[in-house]
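Troubleshooting log. The previous run stalled partway through. Resubmitting the same three chains, unchanged.
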Amino acid sequence: MESNAEASGLVAASRESKRLMPIVFIPAQLRELAGGIQSVELQATNVREIVNQLDTKFPGFKDRICTDGNISPSLQISIDSVITSRGMIAKVQPHSEVHFIPAIGGG
Amino acid sequence: MSAYKKVHVTTTINGEQVDFLCEPRHSLLEVLRDSLGLTGSKEGCNNGNCGACTVILNGRPVDSCLVLSAEVEGAEIETVEGIACNSNLHPVQQCFLEGAALQCGICTPGFLVASKALLEKDPDASEETIRFDLSGNLCRCTGYDKIVRAVQAAGQQMREI
Amino acid sequence: MTTTQYRVIGSRPVRHDGADKVTGKAIYTADTKLPGMLVGFVLRSPHAHARIISIDISEAEATPGVHAVLTAADYPNVENKMADLGEGSINLSYLSSNCMAQQKVLYRGHAGAAVAATDVHIAEEAVKKIKVEYEVLDSVTWVLDAMKEDAPLLHDDMVTDSMGEKASKPSNVPAHLHFEKGDAAAAFAEADVIVEREFKTATVHQGYIEPHAVVADYNEDGRLRIWTATQGSFTCRQQTAEILQIPLGNVLVTPCEIGGGFGGKITVYLEPTAALLSKKSGRPVRISMTRSDVFEASGPTPGSFMRVKIGAKNDGTIIAGEAWLAYDAGAYPGGVIGPGCMCVFSCYDIEHAVVDGYDVCLNKPKTSAYRAPGATQVAFATEQLVDELAQKLGMCELEIRQKNAVKEGSRRVDGPVYPPIGLVECLDALKQSDHWNTPLQGPNRGRGIAAGFWFGCGLKSSAACTVNSDGTINLLEGSTDIGGSRTSIAMQLAEVLGLEADDINPQVGDTDTAGYTDVTGGSRVTFATGMAAYEAGRDLQQQMKTLAADLWDCPADEITVDDDGSFSGNNRTLGFKELAVELFAAGEHLVGRATVSPECPTNGFGAQIADVEVDPDTGKVTVLRYTTIQDAGKAIHPSYVEGQLQGGTVQGIGWALNEEYFYKDDNSMANASFLDYRMPTMLDVPMIDTIIVETGNPEHPYGVRGVGETPIVPPPAALANAIYNATDTRMTELPMSPPKLWKAMQKHQAS
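Second attempt completed without errors. Output:
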């Protein structure tokens, strides 16, 4: 399932948790690679499966977000607004929402 | 090792007579910290801008990094280590603690010494006077609010004693 | 709002390390002295950009009293590998080159060699005898100049990375970030009102009063001991071990008391150099930076160029945002552009937005974090535009913020949705505050408000508590204490166990004794290390239940622990201390432990009100009154929460009104001293009133959110808005120092 739904629509979707599969937001810089879509629902239980499926659907995707087989150090993964430190092995739930965002440093 | 001949200095620090040898180029701060082990006075800038090394020299607060150690022959010096009397904290120390007027604590010795000097002269010091008088002491953590209040509280305690 | 009543949490005990700090006994790094210790001094580049042709150290080496001279040739070659800093990561090759320049110096102050001698004066004189031949190169210190095609290149092999896609040509722009939410272009077409401006901010420094300092002792057996001023002993250990290419386990880092950090004492500068000087000389070595070194060669926080645009409907709903941001990274890649992009619209629920960000290398010291890194710059832009929008719509500046404020469920431009947060509550508190409800009168006076946000992070923390025979506790944790965190952590343990804060002896351990703990930064210590202490207390209670079951001859699951920490079972009730004493007498000894790694951002929101008076003849701004409001979740020690709010605010006032790296024509810094850099003194600021909002963070047992960083975010914007209301002059450049403001006022009057 692919979606061009406006982001605001997705808020409602995630709140209602009607989805049966996790939804992955395609980073804006990779949307061209993904044919312009903003998000995609995937049958996956962890980040590795998500990345592999995205790479199958959109060849080259993995190279853009991974270094040496792991999520690039300049990125972090947000699952349901929680920043996971578990990288590829982080678990996702059927209703989860997954984002790839820049790593943040603090003071 | 050094090309400089050392100078013998006799001075009084926190009520005790102290003798030391120093090079003419050594500041009072260097001697206090490196030769005498009095590391309570801190070095934040070494050019008189921050006040972390404030000591009382013959009754006046000074930046000890700007005083040459050879100049203190015969002087009376008070450092942060000498503020508490036996095991009793001075009111400025107590008020800084109770008023949370310190965070990292690096500027605290300088503030305590400068505050004590001010309050001994003027325990009634207004907020404006305190801010003017202590403006040579930099603090980067507290925003000064709690320091001003602690000095005011200490002044009140000193007036009551 | 949290309503639970606590015994210890919310009280204001004297901090555990307080007496040491008011008597001069607390030991900071520069106070450390080891037998036979030498003192190091670092040779620093006089040029902003130059190739090192040759270095001749022979004369320095021959100087009496000199025991070791070091150059980059003594540093191991470090591969291009990323090291985790706890928050974010860093390229080790760049980190190593920043500690000691290889081939090129990239900024004035860049280390090129170092000397260890019997005293600092001999070392300093010997450094002057090192002969370096430089080929001076063109340099650049302004972001937009550095981005130009023909700009002098700092790194020949550096290309722009756009989320994994590499540009074909080298440039000074190591990264381009891009975010999109909805369709910004279409939304702007729908907007009734649009405001857009360009903004500039200057490079500023954290300004901690303690200069960077380290003592290193490289033992004959290959073990390295380091005493240092660091915000994170474990990351310091990792960076040092990786740069020196020695086993992590061979390095022991002892964090001394630290004289301020604010984000600037996370990356290493001196540690590897001191270690190598110690190895070379066979003696312990101490190095302290001079104040000018601190300004020129540690990590200030970025200057920036920003173009920001927002659009709204006539009813005040902000529907579109657009931002183009370029931040200094300094000499090496990896600035704070990421959080800048993620914070530019973080306070407002905007349906359509697009954000572009550029990390830009130039000939300034490598920038580092400074309280909410990257957020203050963008707030200066956005919060002024929101005021302008309100003005155009004839709305109150508070009302427009309340109308558009993010709340639980609002989607951020970078994607994630907010959990429960407290911006609305902060704005409500602002509206009800005495300050807001007291009219400001008089000529040349104005009031301004602004909101602010910082993520706050969890990361990893550990705590262990050993029960003494009298029922008191020794608490071992690994968070270096910069502002009273020993006490705020101990109070959480005291609360869970039913003890007083004084019953806990908190100690900050070194890397051999404390469990792994990430940096004191990211507003995380009271939140995460406090949570570790809480969990260690729970662990202790679990163990005590089991042991009490034996003592009281009843099943463990029949023993309950009450909110006051007392244990009940088999018709007996004992407080924690009493039970601990009985258990100790019965031969039991107890250690509770916990490690935590909370992963949800703590989402700290705040709002501030500034009243100013502007001198029309000089452009000098006097801050008349200031109120800082923040959602602390739950304030563990309110005095130290207020202290964070007040301290961050005054740093923000300095950033707004005065602080700036001035560059001369040769791109060297003209004002590398406290006198010339001119941070706020006591005389420059009023009392800072605080209002602590407590919305409770569901991710923490007591509801704590981080408070350390957010307070620095609103001040430049709040003051700019106040200055506008006082003078009718919109300031788009930081600092709003008298000459700049005066010129802007003249220009405005002329138009």
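Takeaways: Residues 29 and 64 of chain A are 10 Å apart (CA to CA). The first strand of chain A starts at residue 2 and ends at 3.
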